[in-house]
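From the pipeline queue, job 12 of 40. The input is one protein chain; the requested action is below.

Action: predict structure.
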Amino acid sequence: MTGLADRLAEMAARGETAGYGTLARDLGLRMTDLTAALEAMMERDAAAGRPFRAALLDARLTPGQPARGFFDKAAALGRPLTPVDIPAERAALFAAAGRDRSAP
């Protein structure tokens, strides 16, 4: 999904995160379509050895962290992450986008 990939690339370049609901609304997607697209993107990221771009999303119930499904999918892909790993995952995305925002 090009719109999603482009939007996440823009967010990484600016050192930003966004909520799932906000991103779904901005892209005109239903939440189920957004999560399916994010999971497919995670599969591609894992296959390419890249940081998970879906780490840029924040869950409503766990501010500053992706939703539980993100962690479940990462584990299913053989790259289990915990909430402690998210700042480093995001820093890698920011650095790859040409802007290192590893410090909060």
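Job complete. The longest helix spans residues 31-48.
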